[in-house]
């Protein structure tokens, strides 16, 4: 049996649709027929800059939703046909840009009845990244067990880049944790949507420069900000976040090279994957809780934009992302539509 796969042919090379075998699940794994997969900036950056991937041709894609096709030895709680969503990984057999993929069953969730495949595939990486950064022991450690009784009522938090995929989920995580004031920095056109997710204040980036942002954030918070999330990860966002924090404050950043400034404020860099050994236990806990959080409305998926032409449409999607033509939405493809 063969399937259609989108290969990155070589380092910094082109994407090409080709045939490849459908793999059988090993012990502890399930095989999934991929119905939808989301595009992420990391995907086109791997093509452009050549990192993470060790072997070519490579299959990318880390946001996946589909139907369980086959159950591996020792797997319980799943059956053929179950609708599931999960985070893929940077090895071909577990990547999302193909018609069938494999995944360890302990970091898979069943899709709640209130969302569709496309919405489900917008969640895994976008949610996992701030969840690890904000909640886990490898980040701010605010609630590693997803205990619903934990509350930071009366406290403020700051999210830089609220309209990014990770920023949207960071806002919702701070809301879940009970923060009373959640300030974010984003385009004004996203204000109503970000407030619906839990932001109490949206600072318009067209009105307040990054250089003046920290003072604006502190004025709104009206209390020491001890926790912040940087969903952009450039030098300006890092500086603005750190400047907004109180003495001894903590920042989780998507910038893998972010470092402490030596001023007593702590920076945690995020490797946003449940597959990483250091995150695996937290990842298991996350996937036990996430489906219910989506079902009850605690976590709302990203808005989605659906792309045509199956796997062949991914390259056009990357061009839109590189051209800054995507804002506040997740691009989604449907691999089974590949001709």
From TrEMBL:
<protein>
    <submittedName>
        <fullName>GroES-like protein</fullName>
    </submittedName>
</protein>
<dbReference type="InterPro" id="IPR013149">
    <property type="entry name" value="ADH-like_C"/>
</dbReference>
<dbReference type="InterPro" id="IPR011032">
    <property type="entry name" value="GroES-like_sf"/>
</dbReference>
<dbReference type="Pfam" id="PF08240">
    <property type="entry name" value="ADH_N"/>
</dbReference>
<dbReference type="InterPro" id="IPR020843">
    <property type="entry name" value="ER"/>
</dbReference>
<dbReference type="Pfam" id="PF00107">
    <property type="entry name" value="ADH_zinc_N"/>
</dbReference>
<feature type="domain" description="Enoyl reductase (ER)">
    <location>
        <begin position="13"/>
        <end position="333"/>
    </location>
</feature>
<dbReference type="InterPro" id="IPR013154">
    <property type="entry name" value="ADH-like_N"/>
</dbReference>
<dbReference type="GO" id="GO:0016651">
    <property type="term" value="F:oxidoreductase activity, acting on NAD(P)H"/>
</dbReference>
<dbReference type="InterPro" id="IPR036291">
    <property type="entry name" value="NAD(P)-bd_dom_sf"/>
</dbReference>
<dbReference type="InterPro" id="IPR047122">
    <property type="entry name" value="Trans-enoyl_RdTase-like"/>
</dbReference>
């Amino acid at each position: 049996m063969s399937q259609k796969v989108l290969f990155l042919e070589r380092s910094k090379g082109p994407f090409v649709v080709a045939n490849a075998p459908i793999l059988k699940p090993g012990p502890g794994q399930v095989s999934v027929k991929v119905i939808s997969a989301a595009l992420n900036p990391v995907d086109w950056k791997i093509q452009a800059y050549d990192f993470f991937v060790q072997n070519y041709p490579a299959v990318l894609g880390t946001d996946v939703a589909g139907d369980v096709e086959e159950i591996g030895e020792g797997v319980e709680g799943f059956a053929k046909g179950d609708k599931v969503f999960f985070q893929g990984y940077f090895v071909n057999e577990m990547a999302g840009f193909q018609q069938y993929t494999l995944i360890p069953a302990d970091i898979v969730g069943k899709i709640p009845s209130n969302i569709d495949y496309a919405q489900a595939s917008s969640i895994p990486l976008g949610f996992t990244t701030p969840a690890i950064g904000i909640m886990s022991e490898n980040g701010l450690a605010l609630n590693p067990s997803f205990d619903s009784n934990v509350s930071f009522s009366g406290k403020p938090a700051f999210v830089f880049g609220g309209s990014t995929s990770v920023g949207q989920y960071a806002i919702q995580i701070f809301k879940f944790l009970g923060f009373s004031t959640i300030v974010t920095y984003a385009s004004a056109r996203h204000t109503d949507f970000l407030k619906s997710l839990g932001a109490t204040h949206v600072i318009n980036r067209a009105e307040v420069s990054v250089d003046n942002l920290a003072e604006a954030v502190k004025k709104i918070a009206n209390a020491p900000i001890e926790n912040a999330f940087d969903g952009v990860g450039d030098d300006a966002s890092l500086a603005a976040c750190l400047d907004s924090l109180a003495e001894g404050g903590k920042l989780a950043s998507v910038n893998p090279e972010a470092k402490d400034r030596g001023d007593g404020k702590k920076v945690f860099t995020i490797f946003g994957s449940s597959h990483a050994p250091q995150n695996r236990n937290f990842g298991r806990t996350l996937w036990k809780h996430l489906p219910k959080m989506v079902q009850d409305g605690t976590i709302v998926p990203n808005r989605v934009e659906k792309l045509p032409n199956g796997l062949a449409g991914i390259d056009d999607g990357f061009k839109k992302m590189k051209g800054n033509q995507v804002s506040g939405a997740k691009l989604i493809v449907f691999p089974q539509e590949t001709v």
